[in-house]
Amino acid sequence: MRNRDLTPSEKSQATFEPRIVAFFCNWCTYLAADLAGTSRMKYAPNVRVIRVMCSGRVDPQFVLDAFAHGADGVFIGGCHPGDCHYQEGNYKTLRRFHLLKRVLQQMGIEDERCRLEWISAAEAERVRSTINDMVEKVRALGPLDLIPTEEKVSAEEVAV
Amino acid sequence: MPEKPKVAFYWCASCGGCEEAVVDLAEAILDVIAAVDIVFWPVALDFKRKDVEAMPEGSILVSFVNGAIRTSEQAEMAHLLRSKSKLLVALGACAHLGGIPGLANLFDRESILKAVYLEAPSTVNPEGSLPTTHHKDDGHSVELPGFYNTVQALNQVVEVDYSVPGCPPTPRIFRTALQTLLGDELPAKGTVLAPDCALCDECPRKDSKPEQLSIVEFKRPQQLLIDEQKCLLAQGLLCMGPATRAGCEALCVRGNMPCSGCCGPTSRVKDQGAKILSSLASLVAGKEAAEIDRILATIPDPVGTFYRYSLPASLLHRKQLDRASLHEAAASK
Ligand code: SF4
Ligand code: SF4
Ligand code: SF4
Ligand code: FES
């Protein structure tokens, strides 16, 4: 690497720790994350887990709100197809997720920042590997740093 | 005789439709004129900015501002009217949520100026000149308003007391709002002056709206002969009724067209686009990713459809710009 000063964005990249908000279903992925913990599996500490009663409870507004409040990535974990405690909840999640991804794409938010996985209560290892994988992918993308917030507009927007 | 309350009207990034809506009050406008003293209304009366500047702070009872904030001049006028008025009211979807001009938040300033001044087939601009804020010619210089990168709703720029929804607000919505504002009992600050329930509640077709739907294809109005009685969603048309505030008496549906969402969301919803996304996606048939994608592909422009009037007011505000190029632009200034 050439010997030169890092630009501000490279500096923030070097110290950047992604913040991932995870919505985990109470009956599967949340238990798997718990199991990963009690089995002393190590996974990246960048994830804040929010327990929901079913992945179908994850309103797309929650995902956008997480991004708007500083999340660099959002991870939704639910029961495998056919295993949802509320029968159809995870199918609704799947449909919403597919439509939400199209909105995010149009809004310039990279694909890797929003992820849906089916992880059963026994699959602690998949919780670990998925989180690690997601953290690395989001780290490579850098901070989302949503713009503009109300204050930023006037400060940052230089008139032509 | 006591002094009549003073009222002002102003337009920002607007199509003029909301000004028309004021005139559309028809005979009722005479009652309005009898009840108030209009002290500023650039579209109809010859008062200037300096007249407003000369008014004492808070001397205007209500200022109605329509249009979104796109230029520095619009932001200045919004601040000026705010300081001179007891109540500042966002009139119409553009001021309330960003409106149609807010869809420009899918682009940035540079690409918009390029498209308009350099690339449009009807543009003749051999010198390739772009708008600037400072211009010198023949020893004279002028300062012009700046064009922001991002379109904002009025309440993202100044404190807003109330909003009157609609693109434009229907005469009934506007008249009711006016009565409320001139009356003795003002609603809580921030209130949107229209019923706080979903449009489906006041839709004449609501009884034919099924509890469960299993949509296999979204259709556009030109693709079918629309049944005039049946709920439009049940016919596969993308009707924003479930995620839109009531008040217009389902004007579009009465005209046999789906609601496109101009009255914005109810107070319980933060993001109108996410809300309709959620309810539509739950109605889609299919359990396999490929089949789901095939059905959803019949919605060609999700953002332009779900956020047609509310992109600036949405949780994401705008399309994310490339950070690196923004930093560079800021550094080179
Ligand atoms: S709300 Fe609609 S009618 Fe009013 S200015 Fe905006 S585009 Fe025009
Ligand atoms: S979805 Fe549209 S047509 Fe159906 S009840 Fe609601 S507003 Fe009316
Ligand atoms: S039906 Fe929908 S789009 Fe039409 S006027 Fe009413 S709220 Fe606006
Ligand atoms: S209960 Fe786990 S996804 Fe529905």
Structure in a nutshell:
The complex is a heterodimer of chains A (160) and B (333). Chain A has 160 residues and is α/β, with parallel strands linked by helices. In chain A, 43% of the residues lie in helices and 14% in strands.
Question: How does this structure look, described?
Answer:
Chain A is α/β, with parallel strands linked by helices and 160 residues long. Helix content of chain A is 43%, strand content 14%. Chain A has a single domain (18-156), classed as Rossmann fold (3-Layer(aba) Sandwich). In chain A, strands 2-1-3-4 form a 4-stranded parallel beta sheet, sandwiched between helices. In chain A, strand 1 (20-25), helix 2 (29-38) and strand 2 (47-52) form a beta-alpha-beta unit. The model of chain A is unreliable at 154-160 (pLDDT under 50). The N and C termini of chain B lie far apart (57 Å). Chain B contains 12 helices and 9 strands. In chain B, the strands form 3 sheets. Chain B has a 5-stranded parallel beta sheet, with helices on both faces. Chain B has a two-stranded antiparallel sheet with strand order 4-8. Chain B is α/β, with parallel strands linked by helices and 333 residues long. Chains A and B meet through helix 3, helix 4 and helix 6 of A and strand 8, helix 9, helix 10, helix 11 and helix 12 of B. The site of FE2/S2 (inorganic) cluster has 13 residues of chain A, from helix 4. FE2/S2 (inorganic) cluster is lined by residues 25, 27-28, 54-56, 78-79, 84-86, 89-90 of chain A.
Structural class by helix and strand composition of chain A: alpha/beta
Low-confidence stretches of chain A: 154-160
- The stretches of 5 or more residues of chain B where confidence is low (pLDDT under 50) are none
Measured distance between first and last alpha carbons of chain B: 57 Å
The quaternary state of the protein chains shown equals: heterodimer
Distinct helical segment count of chain A: 6
In order across it, which strands form the biggest sheet of chain B? 2-1-3-5-9
The number of helices of chain B is 12
What small-molecule ligands were found?
iron/sulfur cluster, FE2/S2 (inorganic) cluster
In the CATH hierarchy, what is the architecture of the domain at 6-101 and 150-182 in chain B at level 2?
A: 3-Layer(aba) Sandwich
Principal-axis shape of chain B equals globular
Please state the structural category of chain B.
alpha/beta
Shape of chain A: globular
Task: Write down the Rg of chain A.
Answer: 18 Å
How helix-rich are the residues of chain A, as a percent range?
Answer: 40-55%
Number of domains of chain A: 1
Total number of strands of chain A: 4
Largest sheet of chain A: 4 strands, parallel
Integer average pLDDT of chain B: 93
